[in-house]
């Protein structure tokens, strides 16, 4: 390499490097802008299409369903978010500040409910707590009561939906709060205790305020997932924006109403994105240098306190993971479930094809975005990446409605061209295939792939790039021969995460899938909606098992 470099005149090499740099900047910038434009298309389509129809359509919505959708969506977010915040923060504090039997196991197990799709948890709890379910049946048999002689909380209600969402989404708060509590200087807490503050007072006045940004960040993620939820709200008959968009578009064929509801839902999304972004400011790392394994617990618990702490941390795991998983496993062993699994491969293959296509699409786009960021600090590149990674906050129903309008126009023109030019006699070319669905899923899960790829890319020394470029390698060659092999672990992790999220996605798949495509998620939804949960148990169990991989990976990264 040295002899090769010594043969190049310095001024000529500098000019060549500058020329190549400008070319690479332009090329990667164009790629980033194109990806951002494609990712931002659903939002742009909603903002452009929503004002059409005049005030009459808005007045009609306001006089019929808008207030109900708004109130129910807000209440569901408040109740589910409140439950997740209390459970996640409380368990995180017990795990980091105390010591009790089973603490290490529960520190890991408290993340498991995140592997359970919320709509599957809703099916399980409805089956368990309905009037004819085993809980109420046992309740009546135990006390000898008949129908109408006792009161039992209604699971198919807004409160029931908030409970299901809160108990499976609290790990978002738990993970960030646990990391924040572990990073705090315990000297401050001990100083407060030495000045006479009780453990509760020291927690609320010292530890909790320091961890507030992290807790708010986890809460923002819970609220985003609650806003995006369709399966729980639909199954429990809770009118929300997600169910309203689905009902307006597919059940009533009212495109204008669906677009306006999507635009109003977008307001919630913008507020949550602003909240999540604001929580990133002010986070600090005041670690006092003592590892969790060597430092003493901040609060010494009595034997009774240790038992209560263990029960408090075990209960969310029991309700959020053990009960749904055990009930599904029990149903899956029945003859009805095994008999219904005869054509299971049809749904598995549909999920595999969809997941692989979305994974490859996201990986290519994430590589281009991450490489563009490493090549330039331009505002255009930063802005493009921000737009391209907004999909994590966009509900599937909103994405689907936002894409159908512009894609329909393009598809109509493309189909007419194919018919007039080549004599094509089939239906719509794009809409009748999975192309639009893969597009929507790639937009939604682009953030997952980009974060993984960008994290891996940041660990590669820039000198490797400089050396290859000085030898005349093009940016594309550098990407394929140097970065791609070194990024293999990050690429595999990104592909796995996108694949699993795609397989579990429900609302976008329901709206955009072609008639001949059935996935594990849509099959589970259709069977459970027909009250055939036993037949849906095996597909649901596969979805739950698939969700364990990203959860375990997330827990490992958080522990590090």
- Distance from N terminus to C terminus (CA atoms, Å) equals 38 Å
How much of the sequence lies in strands comes to under 5%
What is the H/E string? HHHHHHHHHHHHHHHHHHHHHHHHHHH
Structural class: mainly alpha
Number of strands: 0
**Largest sheet descriptor:** none
Helix content bin:
over 70%
Model regions low in confidence, pLDDT < 50 over at least 5 residues: 1-25, 288-294
Shape assignment? globular
Rg, rounded, reads 26 Å
| Number of alpha- plus pi-helical segments | 27
The overall pLDDT average reads 81
Question: What report would you give on this structure?
Answer:
- The chain is mainly alpha-helical and 560 residues long.
- The chain contains 27 helices and no strands.
- The longest helix has 40 residues, at 10-49.
- The chain is globular.
- 44% of the residues are buried.
- The model is unreliable at 1-25 and 288-294 (pLDDT under 50).
